[in-house]
Design goal:
The chain is of the alpha/beta class and 477 residues long. Helix content is 40%, strand content 22%. The strands form six sheets. A seven-stranded mixed beta sheet has the order 14-15-16-13-12-18-19, with helices on both faces. A six-stranded mixed beta sheet has the order 9-8-7-10-11-21, with helices on both faces. The chain has a three-stranded antiparallel beta sheet with strand order 5-6-22. Helix 2 (61-77) crosses helix 6 (178-190), helix 3 packs across helix 4 and helix 3 packs antiparallel against helix 6 (178-190). The longest helix is centred in the first third of the chain and has 20 residues, at 39-58. The chain is globular, with a radius of gyration of 23 Å. The N and C termini lie far apart (66 Å). The structure holds NADP nicotinamide-adenine-dinucleotide phosphate. NADP nicotinamide-adenine-dinucleotide phosphate is lined by residues 145-149, 154, 172, 174-175, 204-205, 208-209, 212, 223-225, 228, 231-232, 246-249, 280, 377, 379, 405, 446, 450.
Length: 477
């Protein structure tokens, strides 16, 4: 399949380097091909977005919403086909991939619904006959940069609010997953999106930087690693450009002595190994109350060892490969370093050989929190365990991280659960469910090194994709 960039409403081949989108389960298989956009084409994309901005912003919110609903219908109709494509290019299992595609349709519908919700506030005035209105306006041209691990749902949760609130978009998806980016753009253009409102440019770091730097781009929304996110924040700071970044995590699950251990073991494994551990909210640290540690770890290790790993398109497969050889090397060397530092593998010690970027689901019993594994996001199916003497120590260990994206706690004690709500420094907390998982209608995002700027999803997205204007509406004299 040949992929094209979308610039000013035209599908164009791209004047930049050629790229091949390959199947991580069988790297010799090319899923799609295309060419990156050149610097001149990124310029044209920004110019097109600027030119389209006034008319799109002036269009009634309900007319913009109608395009999103029509696109959602197209995405839903293609969910099985595009889900299979997603599994082939990214490596998550077919059921997860189809669910992701359907999730992106739900997000498009949710933000279409914003047209029916209040769009400002009215305050009284001490001056007779006057009211004070707070109205919402689009920010203009939004530059969107997205990661590889959710090829359609993360783009949807940026593009849908951006468009719904009246902005135009220049979007650079991850170069590892260009096919699903093409599909989402296709759905939106087929749904009647006017020319220039969404521009899709393929490229790597250089294209991302060009969008961040461009004076014609009014604001940047980025999701990806903390290292790149911090560079984007710094650059936007220099330019005085509004920025929203959702970044890496090192998420903890805490299992206390009163927890249902079967349920906790199941949820910890879902959090650690679903999507091959390539979720920003994946569980990578497990903190267990000492009295139940051996019992829990036996269950977690046993579940990890019997997970079916293989081609994500094959029925019954529960975990696919990592996305790339670089990801595989990062995970295997991170595990080897942890073992050198004294970690004991409870599951998944031997690497895979053969084709594909597979690694085994891995459980590491850590010698303490001083190891590199405790601090560094590996972004793979690896969970490292430490023991805690009680609730306070467990919560303290969960907070012992520069990251603060998500956490999970397993307990039957409501008082302890509320204590965790008070104590834990994270953007998302799951009580008695795995650390990953999010609904489109509630805020999503991290604290500390995991997030910067307004949160995404739900009405929180409005904080980034609009600005307020305060209007003192006096009666005519
Ligand atoms: P990444 O390497 O940081 O890349 C993210 C995006 O930024 C890609 O499109 C990438 O392009 C682009 N990029 C790279 N260098 C850039 C630069 N200097 N300027 C502008 N753009 C640049 O992240 P990833 O490997 O795709 O995704 C995994 C990471 O994302 C993990 O750390 C994960 O925790 C995090 N994540 C966070 C969330 C969240 O909501 N908090 C959600 C999902 C993922 P190319 O890759 O094409 O070069």
């Amino acid at each position: 399949m040949d992929l094209l960039n979308l610039i000013g409403g035209r599908w164009v081949e791209g004047d930049g380097e050629e790229f091949a989108d390959t199947n991580p389960a069988r790297p010799s298989e090319v899923v799609a091909r295309g060419r990156f956009a050149s610097a001149a084409e990124v310029e044209r994309a920004v110019a097109a977005a600027r030119a389209a901005a006034p008319e799109w912003a002036a269009m009634p919110h309900h007319a913009r919403a109608a395009v999103l609903v029509a696109a959602a219908d197209l995405v839903d109709a293609a969910a099985d086909e595009w889900g299979a494509e997603l599994a082939r290019e990214e490596g998550k299992t077919l059921p997860e991939a189809v669910a992701e595609v359907r999730g992106s349709a739900r997000i498009l519908r949710y933000y279409a619904g914003e047209a029916d919700r209040e769009s400002g506030e009215i305050f009284a005035s001490p001056r007779p006959g006057e009211n004070v209105l707070v109205v919402r306006k689009p920010i203009g041209v939004a530059g969107l940069i997205t990661p590889f691990n959710f090829p359609i749902v993360i783009p949807a949760w940026k593009i849908a609010p951006a468009l719904s609130y009246g902005n135009t978009v220049v979007w650079k998806p991850s170069s590892l997953v260009p096919l699903l980016a093409y599909r989402l753009a296709q759905a939106l253009t087929s749904a009647g999106l006017p020319d220039g409102v969404l521009n899709l440019v393929y490229g790597e770091a250089e294209a991302g930087s060009a969008i961040v730097d461009h004076p014609g781009v009014d604001a940047i929304s980025f999701t990806g690693s903390t290292a790149v996110g911090r560079a984007v924040i710094a650059r936007c700071g220099e330019l005085g450009k509004p920025v929203q970044t959702e970044m890496g995590g090192k998420n903890a699950s805490v299992v206390l002595a009163d927890a249902d251990l079967d349920h906790a073991a199941e949820q910890v494994c879902l959090g650690a190994f679903r999507s091959t551990g390539q979720k920003c909210t994946a569980t990578s640290r497990l903190i267990v109350a000492s009295p139940v540690a051996d019992e829990l770890l036996e269950r977690v290790a046993e579940r990890a060892a019997r997970l079916v790993v293989g081609d994500p398109l094959s029925p019954g497969v529960e975990m696919g490969p990592l996305v790339s050889s670089a990801a595989r090397d990062r995970v295997t060397s991170g595990v080897a370093r942890a073992v050198d530092e004294g970690a004991k593998p409870l599951a998944g010690s031997s690497p895979y050989d053969g084709e594909g970027w597979f690694v085994p689901p891995t459980v590491l019993d850590l010698p303490g929190t001083g190891v590199d594994f405790w601090r560094t996001e590996l972004f793979g199916p690896v969970v490292g365990v430490v023991r805690a003497s009680g609730t306070e120590e467990a919560l303290g260990l969960a907070n012992l991280s520069d990251h603060g994206l998500s956490a999970a706690i397993f307990t039957r004690d409501l008082g302890v659960a509320l204590r965790a709500v008070d104590r834990l420094d994270v953007g998302v907390l799951h009580i008695n469910s795995e650390s990953a998982g999010t609904f489109p209608y509630v805020p999503f995002g991290g604290v500390k090194q995991s997030g910067f700027g307004p949160k995404e999803q739900g009405r929180a997205a409005r904080e980034f994709f609009t600005h307020t204007m305060t209007v003192y509406l006096g009666a005519p004299a």
